[in-house]
Write a structure and sequence with these properties.
Blueprint lengths: L7 E6 L7 H4 L3 E4 L2 E4 L2 E4 L6 H10 L5 E3 L3 H10 L5 E6 L7 H12 L3 E5 L5 H16 L3 H14 L1 E5 L4 H6 L16 E7 L2 E8 L2 H15 L6 E7 L4 H13 L4 E7 L2 H7 L4 E7 L3
Helix pairs in contact: 3-4, 5-6
């Protein structure tokens, strides 16, 4: 089967932090997770914008909680795409959320036209994968080629992020192996990554400039300059990081393309906390 943008759709959940996907691509859909402040529940991005979330977070006496979409939420998205012969449903790591499992249950009601993918990552890394698939659909592709792309993406897409405190990851139970550094930060700033779908610490540094230097060192070691290197930058109410990291990319990898810059939505922001920044890259061949 020849897969194209006309016969193949892509479904994302809101942890991709890519709410503009449906407006940019007619074959994409965006399924929101839920954020709760006490008795109030909001759909991520749909009923609570990133700006509204961080404003609410600053003044709310209660800690927000998150919940995955229901299987019925995904069924509705898949049924909306009934005209398409194939659907790729790309989701946050199943280690970090039950979203993948909800999508899997929904797909069983629709049939084998839906391919549910555990991306083993989060946030704009998922958006990078969606664009990589879309580029192949634009010229025509196959399930086998997309499967090979997803395998390579899962093995080689890199994520670095730094947070001001581990408090939010601890509250949400998403801390993974980073728990080992939780006890003695003492003004140290953790630099973390996602490996095999789990949050893993890679360094502890003192202050923003040292964190930036660690980002640069690891980025340079992991990449070469040239076409196909795709970059994304996301922040949690810390917009000045976008310019700083963009300048880093332009200086050390001028051939790279910064494909996305975004504010982390309410769901990812609940777990990362204000001041977090994520730096994502993927070397694509297409």
């Amino acid at each position: 089967m020849n897969l194209t943008s006309e016969n193949t759709a892509i479904v994302l959940d809101s942890t991709s932090d890519y709410p503009d996907a449906p407006a940019r691509f007619p074959n994409m859909r965006f399924v929101p997770l839920y954020v709760r402040f006490g008795d109030e529940t909001y759909r991520d991005y749909v009923e609570l914008s990133p700006a509204g979330f961080y404003e609410k977070l600053r003044v709310s006496p209660v800690t927000p909680a998150t919940a995955q979409p229901t299987p019925q939420d995904f069924v509705a998205a898949y049924e909306d795409l009934a005209a398409y012969e194939r659907i790729y449903s790309l989701h946050i790591s199943s280690t970090l959320s039950g979203t993948f499992q909800s999508a899997e249950l929904a797909s069983q009601e629709i049939g084998d036209k839906v391919r549910v993918i555990d991306t083993r990552t989060a946030s704009l890394a998922i958006a990078l994968l969606a664009h990589a698939i879309e580029r192949r659909l634009a010229r025509g592709t196959t399930d086998d080629e997309i499967a090979a792309l997803i395998d390579r993406f899962q093995a080689s897409c890199d994520v670095l992020f730094t947070i001001e405190t581990l408090e939010y990851l601890q509250r949400g139970g998403r801390i993974g192996k980073a728990q080992a550094i939780a006890g003695g930060l003492l003004n140290l700033r953790p630099v973390l990554t996602i490996e095999d779908g789990e949050v893993v610490p890679v360094a502890r540094v003192r202050g923003r400039q040292k964190a930036l230097a660690e980002f640069e060192r690891r980025f340079v070691e992991a990449t070469g300059d040239g076409p196909g290197l795709r970059i994304a930058i996301a922040h949690a109410d810390a917009e000045d990081w976008v310019g700083t990291l963009s300048e880093l990319v332009w200086r050390v990898r001028p051939g790279a393309e910064i494909e996305f810059t975004s504010t982390l939505g309410a769901v990812v922001g609940t777990h990362a906390g204000p001041g977090a920044v994520g730096f994502f890259w993927f070397q694509d061949a297409d």
